[in-house]
Amino acid sequence: MGQSPLEALAQDLESHPQRRLIERALVSILQLSRREQGPDEWRLISGALGDLSDALEVFQPHRHSRKITVFGSARTSADNPCYGLAEALAREAVAAGFEVMTGAGGGIMEAANRGAGTANSIGLNVDLPFEQHPNRYVSEANGRLLHFRYFFTRKLFFLRESDALVVLPGGFGTLDELFEALTLIQTGRTRPIPLVLLAPKDDTFWAGWQRDVHEGLAARGLISPEDGDLLRECHSASTAVQWISRFYRVFHTANLGSDRLELLLNCPLSAAQLQELNQRFDDLVDEGAIQATEACDEHGIVRPCLRFHFNRRRIGRLYQLLHHLNGLELPSTPALEHPGQRKPLHPP
Predict the structure, then answer these.
(1) Is residue 121 part of a domain?
(2) Is residue 155 included in any domain, yes or no?
(3) Could you tell me the CATH number of the domain that includes residue 318?
(4) Is there a single domain that holds both residue 92 and residue 139?
(5) Which of 154, 296, 323, 327 has the greatest number of CB atoms lying within 10 Å of its CB?
(6) What is the pLDDT of residues 140-197, one digit of tens each?
């Protein structure tokens, strides 16, 4: 008699490098099985796990490339200036080395996938009560189209896999995605990424939003004044892509631990530049000072790193520090020249 699936799993786990985490997940499922008996609860659990499994499989081959997610209204027609702007943005993003992600629907999403082309587009579709067909510029055949059962798992992967967010005018869904991103960034639940508000030059959508929402919250003391640095308003595709590329000129990524923040860089800083950082941004440090060291990135490459005890209430100031870093005059390296690559062409 052959092994049961559980017996085979137990045998596979013996040598798995993530055995402890897998066992913890399995224990959670077993605990749920003792409490939850209804089919609705298990449909939710099974569906969410299916979403996670499918998405991890699709994104695994694309971990080496940076991705820009484009949000915007599905109702935007092809003759609307925002449609052309989204298409141009995606085209320039691909030329700069990025891939493009959308919700796979029509309107702005279709425009962005059209501009990026099928080979550089990833679509994250979601099952809706009314039928939503993915646009023709994302292909299930080449493994670049996902169908999510739930909005919350879809949102998770938008933020988890994105290296930049570009938001064009849209309705409740678009604004929900914008506020979700702002919340996770401001609370330090996701690594710093550039967030661009994009609209044609004569379109006042984002100017009105900034005035009524963002500036209104700051005036009431509900957010910090420097939280305005989490966002960048742009009015052309080239300006938006240049800003996103600049965000990763020196800064590579961040590792936020329980007590310390690591900023991984594409090149080291001089002693004088480090001293200036400590003088200008001492309010970001809870104790001690910003230290220059090294750390491994997600590919195991050792990178220059800035490590310090971070005041988590100062995310806006952290963005100001990143903008300062990316503006430094540093020797040109392959890592600086190819900001669209998560994994550099040549290790720094």
Answers:
(1) yes
(2) yes
(3) 3.30.70
(4) yes
(5) 154
(6) 878 899 999 999 999 999 999 999 999 999 999 999 999 999 999 998 889 999 999 9
Does residue 68 sit in the same domain as residue 164? yes
DSSP line for 24-88: HHHHHHHHHHHH--SHHHHHHHHHHHHHHHHHHHHHGGGTTB-EEEEE--TT--TTSHHHHHHHH
End-to-end CA gap in the chain: 54
Say what the pLDDT of residue 348 is: 42
Residues 202 and 287 in one domain: no
What's the domain range around 267? 251-337
**DSSP annotation string for 265-333:** ESSPPPHHHHHHHHHHSGGGBSSS--EEEEEE-TTS-EEEEEEE-B-TT-HHHHHHHHHHHHTS-----
pLDDT in tens, 290-341: 999 999 888 788 999 999 999 888 999 999 999 999 999 887 666 665 565 6
- Contact in structure between 227 and 186 (CB atoms under 8 Å): yes
Mark whether 213 and 279 lie in a shared domain.
Answer: no
- End of a domain among 182, 216, 247? 247
